[in-house]
From TrEMBL:
InterPro entries to which the protein is assigned, alphabetical: Glutathione_peroxidase (IPR000889), GPX_AS (IPR029759), Thioredoxin-like_sf (IPR036249)
SUPFAM superfamilies given in the database record: Thioredoxin-like
Active site: 57
Record-stated family: Belongs to the glutathione peroxidase family.
One GO BP: cellular response to oxidative stress
Protein name, entry field: Glutathione peroxidase
Pfam family, one: GSHPx
One Gene Ontology term of the molecular function aspect: peroxidase activity
Alphabetically ordered keywords of this record: Oxidoreductase, Peroxidase
Length: 177
């Protein structure tokens, strides 16, 4: 009986110390568009806006607002773009071509990741975490198109998801900054 009680105490203590918790956003490092590494742990203390992007989409003009948002709030917010070719072949380019488009057309200075998949069997692990309540502890989300946005607070906790039609400078987003 005493062994059973001790086993229960050990189990409960492991459960409450977080040993079985899923990784936080700060656990992720992703390849940058230049081949460098984007380490999310370096963004502790800032809000993070993660956006799946595409260069040939009706929402592509949101790059301009993402850059404006980044510049306006850069002391407390980092925007990270994730080019993805999951919807209608709207991001067919190489990383170099995507970077040239983003910097040449929209003067993008916020961090851009290397091209990834944001849905399907080859979904990037970060997007698996962002879209699964079982992993992020907050919400389930389905990426239905380009320019979906995920907002994380200064502690790296997911606080909101915004579909494509919610623009970066909308009150829905800026009120949370």
């Amino acid at each position: 009986m005493i062994r059973l009680i001790l086993a229960a105490i050990v189990f409960v203590s492991f459960a409450f110390t977080g040993i079985d918790k899923q990784p936080t956003v700060y656990s992720f490092k992703v390849e940058g568009i230049d081949g460098n590494s984007i380490d999310f742990s370096k963004f502790k203390g800032k809000k993070i806006l993660i956006v799946n992007t595409a260069s040939k989409c009706g929402y592509t003009k949101q790059y301009a607002e993402l850059e404006e948002l980044y510049k306006k709030y850069q002391d407390k917010l980092v925007v990270i773009g994730f080019p993805a070719n999951n919807f209608g072949g709207q991001e067919p380019g190489t990383n170099a071509e995507i970077k040239e488009f983003c910097t040449g057309t929209y003067n993008v200075t916020f961090p851009m990741a290397a091209k990834i998949s944001v849905k399907g069997d080859d979904m990037h692990p970060l997007y698996q975490w962002l879209t699964s309540k079982a992993k992020n502890g907050v919400l389930d989300a389905e990426i239905k198109w380009n320019f979906n946005k995920f907002l994380l607070n200064e502690k790296g906790e997911l606080v909101a998801y915004f579909p494509s039609k919610i623009t970066p400078l909308s009150e829905e987003i800026t009120s949370k900054l």
